Amino acid sequence: MSGDAHALIVANPWQALRRFTDARIALGRAGVSLPTAAHLAFTLAHAQARDAVYEGLDVDALRLQLRGMSDEELLLLHSASPDRDSYLSRPDLGRSLSAESLDALGRRTREPLDLVLVLADGLSARAVMNHAAPLLGLLLPRLRDAGWSLGPLALVQQGRVAVGDAVGQAMQARMVAVLIGERPGLSAPDSLGVYLSWAPAPGVNDAQRNCLSNIRPAGLSYEAAAEQLWQLMQLARAQAQTGVALKAPGHEALPESSVQEDFFLLPRGPRSTQQSVKDMLARGRQARAASRLQEARECFFEAASLSRREARPPLLAESLKGLGQVMRDLGELELALSHYQEAAQLCEEAGLALPHAHALRHVGDLFLQLGRAHPARKACRRALLIYRANPDAAALDRANALRSAALAEEKQAAGVEAARALWQEAKALYASQQVWAGVAECELHIGASGP
Q1: What dotted CATH number matches 264-448?
Q2: Is 212 helix (H, G, I), strand (E, B) or coil?
């Protein structure tokens, strides 16, 4: 009977493309209708999206995740929306603070701040619960190392994007970043967005903000989001503006006559191949940091082509790793894997131990994402061996390698004890670097592995 049912389903010729996207393509058909499995999957995703909109924020659990990330206690605020129904039916109330929250902020006295980070549940509290702490764990150390003055982390319940302007203005912040749950989609009920505004004040419009969207493991990775957000913050601080007016260096409007010449963004004139590739890599990183992923892909591809043509393996490996990062950002995991594998081979042949380990770790991570546990474990173990043998390896790189190796061990039937030992070692390294999100993740896995 089961075989007869499957025979009724007409496959779609695009089915092979489904591995590149969560979008509902190539579902096939049964007569003139969707197959039952596809219809049930759709109704489940729709229910999950609706649940995400109404799901409440677990403030105590979030406070625990964020513990130690700020020098001050989490600042609890509330929008003018008294409840979820009002929030959904009156969007304007979610854009302003309640009278009590305004009074609480008004009683705080402090010097002007460089930045205030605001968390808001938005339309998906689940997104903030799942992704805010890992992202902040990567971003905050950069801000502190650069000497930025930061306010306490502020959590606004029933908040929309613009509520951050009121918080930023009340705390005399030059800039505000709002981490907020985005409107759930049928493939992503927990997508996190970040909105960056210079000179926050009520009345700032969307054209005056910069946005990073779809931050989650299956979308824009925490590492990529933290890097892009850091680059945007530095640009905004240097230019005293955000939004459409913000320009990355080298990307101002071009005169029409130069557009054709600059199509591939290759430096012109009497410059060495090595410098040309380095310039191209720098432009690719800038484009990726500003979320211009197609432009970044062109830059890294051109850098790789030039390095390959001129037989420069170290530069080719660096270009391929950049290309792998962008392909991963775009969700093209198989292509990303092939680029990282070639980069790892080139680094090994050139005797570049730490770049080799870095590429291998990403190879392992990608194998894990693709559900291929055995090659993932092999790549992660090789990367970890190299890091252990090199005293010059950065502590955070070693911690990340331990994390990847632990995740790979957990996929093995007899890998629980090995994974537990790796998580414990990673936890110590993350703690030494004050990466508290990493410590929290390690504790979660250690606890799950038993006493």
Answers
A1: 1.25.40.10
A2: strand
